[in-house]
Design goal:
There is one protein chain. This protein is mostly helical. It has 7 helices and no strands. It is globular and about 55 Å long. The mean pLDDT is about 85.
Length: about 140
């Protein structure tokens, strides 16, 4: 709900959009991906980016300061899991037979992190940059 409201608010108020997406991120951390999408969409305006980030930071710092650091306990615990449906499971299973399980988990974590960064870089390089000039006044 917060994510959709943030998307709707983005056109009128980047700060309100950041606040709403930040509240959504406090409920479900994956909503932060919508914040990244909004940042990409606002990449032509430093002011809009600053407002979006300020709203999100206010919401996240405010909510997590009330709840406390134990709000991240489940995230820390789940970060050690390798889902049965994950492609990494196909590598992890034979790997843990060759090396200690904790080392295998670290190898998978590093491989997943590196591949995520590489995919993000490839996607970013394939996308067009911000428009250099605007065909219509007021853009």
């Amino acid at each position: 709900m917060f994510a959709v409201a943030g998307l709707v608010a983005a056109r009128r108020s980047p700060f309100a959009a950041g606040l709403l997406v930040g509240l959504g991120g406090a409920v479900k951390l994956n909503v932060g991906l919508i914040g990244l999408a909004l940042l990409w969409g606002m990449r032509g305006s430093k002011r809009s980016i600053a407002e979006l980030c300020a709203g999100a930071a206010l919401a996240l710092i405010g909510t997590y300061s009330i709840v406390g650091p134990h709000a991240f306990d489940q995230i820390r615990e789940a970060s050690r899991f390798i889902s049965t449906g994950s492609q990494w499971r196909l590598i992890f299973e034979p790997l843990r037979d060759l090396i200690p399980e904790e080392v295998a988990r670290e190898v998978i974590f590093a491989a997943a992190l590196i591949s995520t960064v590489l995919i993000a870089a490839l996607l970013a390089s394939a996308l067009p940059g911000p428009p250099r000039c605007c065909p219509w006044p007021g853009w």
